Amino acid sequence: MVEKSDCRKLTAEAGDLQALNRPAENAELWDFVRSWLRRFQKTDGDKATERFVCLWAAVLAWAAKGAPDLGRTQDEIYLAHCLARDQKLAERFANLYKIDKDFRKKIDRFIASAPVFQAAWLQRNAISDWDTVQERSAFIARALEKIHDESDARFFAPACSLVHQQANEKIPVDWPHVFSIIAQVRGNLFHGGRNYKNSGERQFLEPAMAILWEVWRFELPAGLLLSRVSWLRALLRSGFMAQEIDGRISLAEETEGNKRFLQKLLAAGHFGTLKNNVFLPSESYVEESYWLRTVDSSHGSAEMGKADDLAIMDTCMAGLVRWLNQLGIGTELSCDGHGEKRPYFITVDEESARLASWLLNFKVPQFNQSGKTVKYAGAGPNPSATKPADRLKKMLDAAEWLAKNRDDLKIMVASMRRVSAPKTPPKPEPAVTKEQNPKIK
Ligand SMILES: [Zn+2]
Questions:
Q1: Distance 4 CA to ligand 1 centre (A)
Q2: How far is the CA of 141 from the centre of ligand 1 (A)?
Q3: How far, in Å, from the CA of 237 to the mean position of ligand 1?
Q4: Which of 314, 353, 388, 428 has a beta carbon 3.0–4.6 Å from 339's, enabling a disulfide?
C-alpha cells in the first residue's frame, strides 16, 4: 500500500475514503454503463482512442455513483483519486498481479516505462518525443531536467516519480501508482495536442486501457460480465485443431482450409496472426462473445457441409461436431438453432447417434436421441426453461470437454463400437467354478 507521504499525493483528494460505495441495486447506472461498454467492445484495435474514452466514461460514471461527496461528482480529479484509493480495486489489482502471469508482465512493462508525461507539457518545453526504439530511461532523464519545482509534478505520473528516483528506488507496483498513470494517459487523450497521435506517450494508451478494464470489469453485475477465455480454449470450443506446445498455440494439425478461415477471423477481429502454424495472439485472452461474434459474421452457412470445414458450420455447433467426428462419430448435418430452436445434429447412422448421446450425457444428461438425431434437451430441474444463450454456451462447453478428453474418448468410442456391434454372436463361456480355477475372481 501507499506508505510514503509523497505517494499519498496520488489519492489526497479522496480525503479519508477507504472504498467507494457499491450499491446493490442500480439499474439506471448499469444501463448507462452498458451503452458505453457496448461501444468499448465493438470498436476494433484501430480505434483505441475511442475505446478508451468509452471505457473511461463507464468507469467514471460508476465512480461518481459510489463517491461519498455528492457535491464533487463532476470533479474528475476527485473521482480519479477515489478510484486510486479504493481498497477493493487495490486488492484485486494485487491478486491479479500475483496469479496472472500475463497481467504481471503487462504491469511490469508499464511501470518500467513510467513516468508518463503530459504530452502538451512535453511540447511546450520542446522536449523531443520518446522514440520508441530507443531507451525510455534516456528520454525520462531528458524530460526530468525540465522539472523545476514541486508544482511541476502535475506534468507527469505518478506524481511521486521524482521522489522515488531520487531515493534510488523503483516505482511501487500497486494500484494507486498504476492508476495515476492510467489517469495521465486519459489526460493526454483529451489535452495531448494535435501531435499526440504520433507521440511516444501514446504507447501507454493500449496497456492503460487493458489494465483498467481487467481490474475494473469484475465490478460489473453478472449479466454484464463477459466471459474471458484463453485463446487455446476459445479455439478448441470453436473446433479448431489447436494444441499447446512449449507455451505456444500450434495449428500444425489443422487443415489448410481451416487455417485460411482462422486467418480471416484473426484479421477481422484484430486478434493476432498465424505464422508458420503458430498462432501469435495480440492478447493472451479473448472475450469469448467478441470472438464468437467475429466467427458469426465471417462464416458462410451450409448445414450439410463436411464436419471439418469450420468456415461453413454454425458458430456454436462447429466445435461439438468437429470433435465428434475426430472421435470417430460421423455426422451429416447440424444446426445450433440460431438462438431460436434447440441445437441438434444428425449422425451417419443410428449407432453413431446412440454413441454420441451416450458420450455427451456422460456427465450430465442433457441430450435426447431419436433415430439418427441428437437434440439438446436442456439440463437442471427445469430443462425446457433453458435460455437460448445458455443452450449455445452448453454446446461450446460440450465441444471443449470432447476436445480436452479426445485421446481417451477416441479409445472409448472405438471399444464401444466393438461392444455394440459384434460381428459374430459371442461363444458361450465354458462353465468355470472357483474350485476348478482359483485364479479367477
Ligand atoms: Zn510513490
A1: 7
A2: 18
A3: 44
A4: 388
Å from CA of 220 to ligand 1 middle: 29
Q: What is the Å distance from ligand 1's center to 110 Cα? A: 15
- C-alpha of residue 53 to centroid of ligand 1, in Å: 26
Residue ranges with strand state E in 96-164? 116-117, 156-157
What pTM does this model have?
0.56
- Provide the sign of the torsion angle of the four alpha carbons 319, 321, 324, 325, taken in this order: negative
Q: Which helix (H) or strand (E) holds 270?
A: none
Nearest CA-CA partner of 182 in 213, 217, 209, 215:
209
Q: What is the pLDDT of residue 364?
A: 84
| Mean pLDDT per 10-residue segment, the chain (441 residues) | 73 94 83 84 71 92 93 94 96 83 88 89 84 84 84 86 89 96 89 64 87 89 70 96 93 95 88 93 79 79 69 90 95 85 93 94 90 90 78 92 94 86 59 46 41
Q: Say how many Å lie between the CA of residue 160 and the centre of ligand 1.
A: 5
Given this model, what pLDDT does residue 302 score? 58
Nearest CA among 209, 226, 283, 159 for reference residue 59:
209
* CA–centroid distance, residue 5 to ligand 1 (Å): 8
Contact (Cβ atoms closer than 8 angstroms) between residue 324 and residue 305: no
Positive or negative torsion for Cα 276, 282, 286, 291: negative
Q: How far is the CA of 107 from the centre of ligand 1 (A)?
A: 15
Pull the grid cell for residue 62. Answer: 460508476
Alpha carbon of 171 to ligand 1 centroid (Å): 6
Grid coordinates belonging to 274: 498465424
